[in-house]
UniProtKB/TrEMBL annotation:
PANTHER family from the UniProt entry: PROLINE DEHYDROGENASE 1, MITOCHONDRIAL, PROLINE OXIDASE
E.C. no: 1.5.5.2
UniProt-recorded name of the protein: proline dehydrogenase
Regions crossing the membrane: none
Cofactor(s) named in the record: FAD
UniProt entry tagged with the keyword Metal-binding: no
Catalytic activity: L-proline + a quinone = (S)-1-pyrroline-5-carboxylate + a quinol + H(+)
Native source species: Streptomyces bohaiensis
Domain called Proline dehydrogenase: residue spans: 42-300
Entry keywords, A to Z: FAD, Flavoprotein, Nucleotide-binding, Oxidoreductase, Proline metabolism
Length: 308
């Protein structure tokens, strides 16, 4: 029951001010967010790369209200691409973007988002890396996949995220399980109505496995975004069934969550990528992480008690 409450809280400006001003918040957020600056993000990239982990970087920002904010998001990613190129880290770190941060929700937002994200994808290609389009709530899926198709026409390595809790996702997986396509499969972290998404966790998990089978059987490159030990084991079994070798798929997990498992997978020869968010607009991301897993909320609660 707490999950929907926390997801609603992620949209609350009042709660945002309370949480952001609480003395305990910063040390706890630091578990999930690699600082507020590009320098902090690059420090995390270097540290993870030294431990044979790969990275995808997310400059936090969404729900922007005007075109100038969208341009600032674009510029932040251009600076990130430049930093990755300067340090030769393009082969180890890619970029994840939310089109809402690029103006997708503004009037004419589809074109605004495309025009802002295109130079980022071009800069990523020049830096020897890639971009993955994060998926947001169900109202944005068609627009995001249309932007993906346009980007892939010029930069076929551009990837996308699909969320197993949406009813439509099995069909989307089938459409994207093609040569050159990169798909990160996740369960989903937004509050969605029963008309478009499974509400029962067991049903979400079953849908995830069906989608995973489609991706692993296809010709694309699956990226398994999950911390669930059962899904990790199922992925390994499916890789064996479909003859996929390490490097023909990858695991992805969030920064600060199940770090021992991240290292275990990397040590076992798997490609393991860590999703590293950074930036000042961390509140919405942080609340969704609390909503996803009771263990995250318990961690936050223990910190509040111990520091209170």
């Amino acid at each position: 029951m707490l999950g929907p409450v926390l997801l609603a809280a992620a949209r609350s400006d009042g709660l945002r001010r309370v949480v952001a001003s609480a003395p305990v918040t910063r040390p706890v957020v630091d578990r999930f967010v690699a600082g507020e600056t590009l320098d902090g993000a690059m420090t995390a990239v270097r540290s993870l790369a030294d431990r044979r982990l790969e990275v995808t970087l997310d400059h936090l920002g969404e729900d922007i209200s005007d075109a100038s904010e969208a341009r600032r998001a674009r510029d932040a990613y251009l600076a990130l691409a430049e930093a990755l190129a300067a340090e030769g880290l393009g082969a180890r770190a890619e970029m994840s973007v939310k089109l809402s941060a690029f103006g997708q929700a503004l009037p004419g937002g589809h074109d605004i988002a495309y025009n802002n994200v295109l130079p980022v994808v071009e800069a990523a290609t020049a830096a020897g890396t890639t971009v993955t389009l994060d998926m947001e709530d169900h109202t944005t899926v068609d627009s995001t996949l249309a932007v993906l198709a346009d980007l892939r026409a010029r930069h076929p390595q551009t990837g996308a995220v699909l969320q197993s809790y949406l009813y439509r996702t099995e069909d989307d997986c089938a459409a994207l399980a093609v040569a050159g396509s990169r798909v990160r499969l996740v369960k989903g972290a937004y509050r969605e109505p029963a008309e478009v998404a499974y509400q029962d966790k067991h049903q979400v998990d079953k849908a995830y496995v069906r989608c995973l089978k489609t991706l692993m059987a296809g010709d694309g490159y699956p990226m398994i975004g999950s911390h669930d030990p059962r899904l990790v084991a199922i992925t390994e079994a499916l890789a064996a069934r479909f003859g996929r070798k390490p490097g023909e798929y990858e695991f992805q997990m969030l920064y600060g969550i199940r770090e021992a498992e991240q290292h275990r997978l990397a040590d076992a020869g798997h490609r393991m990528r860590v999703y590293v968010p950074y930036g000042t607009d961390w509140y919405g991301y942080f609340m969704r992480r609390l909503a996803e897993r009771p263990a995250n909320l318990a961690f936050f609660a223990r910190s509040l008690v111990s520091r209170g």
